[in-house]
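User: Before I run my own analysis I want an independent prediction to cross-check against. Here's the chain; please return only the C-alpha cells and, at the end, one sentence I can use as a sanity check.
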Amino acid sequence: MKKKIILLIISILTLTGCTNLTNMSIDEVVDVMLKNDTNLSNHVFEGYKYYIPKGLRLLEKDEYNVNLKDEYNNTYYFYIDVVSYYNKEEIEYKVNKKAYVSKELDYNDKKGYLEITRIEDTDAYFIEYMYNYGKIEAFVKEEEIKSAIINMSSVLKSLEFNRTVLESLIGNNLLNYKEDIYDVMKPKGSTANKDTYLEYEEKYGIYEGYGNNDTSEDRIEIDEN
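Assistant: C-alpha cells:
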C-alpha cells in the first residue's frame, strides 16, 4: 500500500513539473491548452456559452462582443463569430513571417490562428488569437504573453454554440452581421502600430470596477462539471 502511495506522489509531481506552463515555449503552451477539449461553462447566453477562468473578469457585453480584464489590468476584446459558425465558414490564414509569433491552429476539429506582433517604440505586443469561431485581441507586455495565451485558450476552447437557438436569432438576419464580423476575424497585426496601441490604451486602459465579485448582469448559469 505504501509503495502505491509513493508511486502516486511521484506521478503527481512528475505531471506537475511537465505541465508548468511558464517554463514552456509559446507553441508548447498553445499545444497543452488546446489538445484537450473542455465542457466547462460559467457564462451562458442565447445561442452560446463559454468559460471565463479565475483571474479574468467580464467587464462589458454588447451583442457578440465582450470586454474582459486580466490580473495585469490588460483588457481583452472578445468577438464571437456566430455567423461563420452558422454558415460553417472558415477564414483562411497565411503565416506572417514578420510577426513575433504566427501559426495556424487545428485541434479537435476546431481551427484558427495565433498571431503576435511587436509594436515598435513601445513595450507592447499585440495578440490576435482566433479559434473555434471566437477571437480575442489584447495588447500586453512580453512577460505577460504566456499568461494571456493561457487565459485566451481557456475561453476560446470552451466556446460552445446552440445551432437551433442561433437559427431562430440570426437565420433571417445574416446580412446584418456578416460583413462586420468577418472583417473583425481577419488578422490585422501588420497594420497595428504605436498610434493603434495608444488609442487602445486610452479607451481600455483603466477600469474602475475591476475586482468586483460579480461584474456581469448577463451571468445566467454556472456549470462546474
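Sanity check: The first strand starts at residue 43 and ends at 45.
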